[in-house]
Write a structure and sequence with these properties.
The chain is an alpha/beta fold. It has 31 helices and 19 strands. β1 and β2 form a beta hairpin. Bound molecules: 1,4-dihydronicotinamide adenine dinucleotide (NAI).
Length: about 700
Amino acid sequence: MAGDAHYEVDGSVAVITINNPPVNAFGFDVRRGVIDAMDRAEADSAVTGVVLTGGGRTFSGGADITEFGKTPREPSLADVNTRCETMSKPVVAAIHGFAFGGGLEVSLSCHGRIATADVKLGLPEVKLGLIPGAGGTQRLPRLIGPEAALDVIVPGNPVSAGKALKVGILDRIADNDLLEDAKAFVRDLAAGGMPTALRDREDKLEAARQDPSGFDAHAAKLTRKAKGLEAPHACVRAVRLAIDTPFEEGLAKERDIFIELMNGEQSKAQRHLFFAEREANKVPGIGKDVRPRAVKTAAVIGAGTMGGGIAMALANGGIPVTILEMSQEAIDRGMAVIRRNYDTSVKRGSISEAVRDERLARLSTTTSYEDIADCDLVIEAVFEEMSVKKDVFGKLDEVMKPGAVLASNTSYLDVDDIGQMTKRPADVLGMHFFSPANVMKLLEIVRGKETAPDVIATALALGKQIGKVPVVVGVCHGFVGNRMLSARSSENEPLLLEGASPSDVDKAFLDFGFSMGPFAMGDLAGLDIGWRNRKSLGQTAVIFDALCEEGRFGQKTGKGFYSYEDGPRDAKPDPWVDGLIAEKAKELGVNRRSIDATEIIERTIYPMINEGARILEEGIALRPSDIDIVWINGYAFPVGKGGPMFWAEQAGLAHIVERLEYWHGKTGNAVFEPAALLRKAAQSGQSLAAAMADKDGQA
Ligand code: NAI
């Protein structure tokens, strides 16, 4: 049974308590329970008002999303709302903890809302590719006006109690005892005459009805960053219904939009990601009994691109950090970048000056290892060279207190080898952040052969504390993300030589849903990094190398695969590059032809999926959904496609295997040789996860 609702009368006030731990989701029994309790309060002549509240630690987390996609059971959440709203006695929602999604929608159908000062309110449906589907898009605009409603519904972010009071979502904030204050509130309402239910209020809509241009402009601004997702636009359409249509009609149309989205590909993908992120926290051998070590202080070695960003991420999460560098000049350079980044955030209004100063105050610097010896955690972000890492870990092993966690931010190097440079490999792991590390959500936690379970638990807990999305991966060259990226990039140069232009390839990626294609991305990151790396390894890449030899390193030199004479955001195809490609193709005797977007995707995205399957076979990633989480949070894979492995299953594994075989035959490139797991799943019609679990199944 999915919870219920408890009924109790105190004098003239009935108190209905939602009881469905842990988050009081509005499952079937809660919906029925609340309606029954409202009926009871309606019928009880001694009762003049009702308080609706949540038992346990919160009001309600909203709909029971395990019911999504199943046959709906009556009464619906909309029925609950109608029942609350059409009561002949005032109903007050008394909110503590949080009221999200359907939870907030139910409170909107009450006649008043009071909350504790630390409450969080929100309509996060957009993050699951949906709109609020139980009247939220019709009631909220009637309560706070349509533009303010967009601010809540389109981004889907939580709103604090103070903000909610200011915009009018809350009527009151409780002084100390929420329930007593709520009873007093409902008595006030009962004494002062029944307040108008939101369904009957039009006053906040008048201005937009007269002239909706302000609303439309505001909506356009909010959806500018929708990145190909339908739901933010659908939210706008639904809120506009509040302006354009009568309440009941608006409710019905809101429902239609909700159902259409629920059945669509994007919401399916986004709901997959919602569960995938939770699943990623489950790591074999790291149960609840494994307690993370306390991390009260941290050190970061290296104040370059990554070290600076990692130090910021830790400081932003409330952890004091000591940054260790080789020289005072390096410290000054690194700190100047950090200060500039914080100042930019202040200028943009994303943090206040006080918050900036608080964060900066958590950062200290040193050139001496003695100063970091007592830190609970060290993250090394020095040059990507084994000899340098070896030197650093040797010193850490000498000075660090016993039990300190020693992490490397290496992109490719063997974390087991790094662990062996110390006498305490059980304390060593990889914590691989992504650039810019203070912004990007992904944290690959690299588990070495000897890494202790509580060290992994510490990294998981810390990752969450500083707002990252941690995924535990195994040791291999490039771990999950970079290893798949190199498979994706393997055909970049052949595609150019055979006839595609950089902008053809980039356009295929944009049409697929990426916000940037690989060549524009290369120009942004700097082509010289890979060039130097290839030179040190004795490798070549004809076109990439030729560009670098010309000093075309990308945006930073004004030219790369594109030219940027009108600024870094304005990439223009460059005939010089086309000429270079044609010349190199001729030298190599490659016949050029026109290459379409389908071929580009098959030769880039399919090998990357194939590499993902190999990574699963080797146990480097625990589950296909972990790979999706890596690619969504670290490499901007289009959210609406749910990650590469989810997308592959939607596109059809058999089709992907068939195309991989085709390209393998044609190019001989090993990246196309289908992984055994992929073949097995394709042949048996199983999902990748099922094929992994089915150890005895024959390929
Ligand atoms: P960087 O060159 O910007 O910074 C390295 C910093 O380490 C420099 O400031 C240097 O002075 C300092 N350093 C070098 N040796 C040192 C030593 N022995 N003791 C103290 N400080 C020392 O390099 P970046 O890009 O920050 O990379 C650092 C690490 O992070 C590398 O392992 C890299 O593979 C990894 N990484 C880089 C990413 C990126 O996008 N740049 C992404 C993820 C990981």
